[in-house]
Design goal:
The protein has 181 residues and is α+β, with helices and mostly antiparallel strands. It contains five helices and seven strands.
């Protein structure tokens, strides 16, 4: 797909939303299923299911990426997609973009060994490498636009409202109900 094809698709979507603002709300879905040990499978849209596993130190067979690695992949690829999308809309030549993402996690939180330690990442950092012949001002605008409009970065940076429920043998229990601050 060329930069012009991406630009055309995005501009058509933007125009559609401008003409009918109600079409801007979308819902993304994923269905997951525990398979065995600490291996699970995930199904998204009509794509083939894929596995999620853990390294041996966490009880897995190291047959696939683990959930926290998928969060890092989501951030890196979302950044790359946003650079491609906005570069095409802004008519900025983009020859390459790659992102190296690192998440720092203290296992004491996950294992409940220290209540003062969060079970999730305590820090995420990324380094983005862009190859472009565009001028510095255009690239600065592109970087600012991507950093302020990347959905996954936004999800990770600001607190989200998350809710859930659990059914145990057919009986519903509250799982989690949090509100964004």
């Amino acid at each position: 797909m060329s930069q012009e094809t991406v630009r055309t698709a995005l501009m058509n979507t933007i125009e559609g939303i401008q003409n009918n603002p109600a079409m801007s709300g979308v819902v993304f879905r994923a269905d997951t299923k525990w398979e065995e040990d600490v291996r699970c499978s995930a199904k998204i849209r009509d794509f083939a299911p894929f596995d999620i596993d853990e390294p041996p130190e966490l009880g897995g067979k190291d047959s696939a990426a683990n959930p926290v690695e998928l969060v890092l992949v989501a951030l890196g690829t979302c950044q790359e997609i946003m650079y491609s999308a906005y570069a095409s809309v802004m008519n900025i030549p983009l020859e390459g973009v790659s992102v190296n993402v690192r998440g720092y996690l203290d296992l004491k939180g996950m294992f409940g060994l220290d209540e003062s330690v969060t079970p999730g990442f305590n820090r995420i950092s990324f380094d983005t490498e862009i190859t472009s012949s565009a001028d510095s001002e255009s690239l600065s605008k592109l970087i600012h636009t991507v950093e302020t409009h990347c959905p996954v970065l936004d999800i990770l940076v600001k607190q989200q409202s998350v809710s859930g429920k659990v059914k145990v043998n057919g009986k519903t229990h509250d799982a989690l109900n949090s509100s964004a601050a």
